[in-house]
Amino acid sequence: MAEFVVLWERVQEVQFSDDPDKIIWKWTANGVYSSKSAYAIQFVGSYCTFNTSALWKAKAEGKHRFFAWLQVQAKIQTADNLLLKGIACDPEVWFLVREWTGGLITMPLPGVQVEEWWNLSLQAATAENRSKVAAILIYTGWNLWNERTEEFSRGLHNQLYEF
């Protein structure tokens, strides 16, 4: 009964406006519902949409390949939390990796999901370089993730320092 009274008091504090409600469907660009978008969103995340063969054939340790498989699907919880808090990877890192590999690695573009960037990076590579590119992406992602989560856990995420 006490919980009901507390709920009632909170509901009484809610201020409603006279403006009409506006319903926006977040699964389309224009905000309008369509059955096509409803069917499409029904299956998002239920199956893997990227070609995993390059990932599993990469010359990297199993734990790193497994990490990359989760990362490409946006299933790395800590990385997601860091992004939600506005702590993103400095693009300078990927510029240096691209320079170090002689342009073998493509830079991640703003707003591009990891899965799409993974696919674009591997499509740009020749057949003989795909496993090398995949390994570089995997190890770079692994090391960045480890460094960022470690510095976040130590409370250093707001401090500038050199690696």
TrEMBL record:
The protein's matches in Pfam families, at most eight in alphabetical order, are given as: zf-RVT
Query: What organism, scientifically named, is this protein from?
Result: Panicum miliaceum
State the InterPro entries in the record: RVT-Znf (IPR026960)
Q: What is this protein called?
A: Reverse transcriptase zinc-binding domain-containing protein
Q: Which residues form the Reverse transcriptase zinc-binding domain?
A: 33-92
